[in-house]
Amino acid sequence: MKMNSVDIRPGNILEYQGGLWRAVKIQHTQPGKGGAYMQVELKNLTDGRKTNERFRSAETVEKVRLDTKDFQFLFAEGDELTFMDKVTYDQVSLPRDLLGEAAEFLTDGMDVTMETYEDKAISVQLPDHIEAVIADTEGVVKGQTASSSYKPARLENGVRVMVPPFIGVGTRIVVDVYAREYVRRAD
C-alpha cells in the first residue's frame, strides 16, 4: 500500500531498497530554502542494520502490513527456538538472534506474538512484563534503605537486574523484558 512520506510514523514497516524496514525515529524538517522532507531512521528487519534516509514530502513509500499470530514457546535446542501455533498446532523453529536479548526471558509455555510477512517470521514479541524469582542478591546493609539506591540481583534465568535494597533471595518480582528493569514486587 503506497503512502505519502510525510505520513510515516515510528513502528511503520516499509518496503525499501528490496528489503523490509521498520521506522524507528522520524523528524519532519522544513528548511527556509528548498522543500520540506522527512528524516527517517530505519532498521532492517532481516539483518538488524540501521540507516538514515531523507524522503522529500512529495515522495511515496510502500507500507507493508504484517500478519500477527499467537504462538506458544515450547523449547530451545542450541541456537534454535521452537514455537507452536496456538490454533493449528504447527511448530516453527527460529534462530535465537531473531529475538535478541529478550530470548533470555523465554520460559516453557510462554505466550508470544509472532509477526509474519508472506508466511516468513519477521519478529517475535514477548509480553512487556514477566514475573521472575530472585536467585541471588546482596544482603541489606543497615541504614542503606533510607536512600533510593539499588543493588544487583540475579534472576533464576541468569539475567542480572538492579533491585531496591528490601528485595531478598526468593522474592517474586515483575521485570520489564525490553528495558531489563525491576518494575515492582509480584502480587
Any overview of this molecule?
The chain has 187 residues and is mainly β. The chain has three domains: 2-64, SH3 type barrels, CATH 2.30.30.30; 67-125, Nucleic acid-binding proteins (OB fold (Dihydrolipoamide Acetyltransferase, E2P)); 129-185, Nucleic acid-binding proteins (OB fold (Dihydrolipoamide Acetyltransferase, E2P), Beta Barrel). Helices cover 0% and strands 54% of the residues. It is built from no helices and 16 strands. The chain has strands at residues 2-4, 13-16, 19-29, 37-44, 50-56, 60-64, 67-77, 80-85, 91-95, 111-117, 120-125, 129-137, 151-155, 160-163, 172-176, 181-185. The chain is flat.
Features:
single chain, 187 residues, mainly beta, OB fold (Dihydrolipoamide Acetyltransferase, E2P), 3 domains, five-stranded antiparallel beta sheet, 0% helix, flat
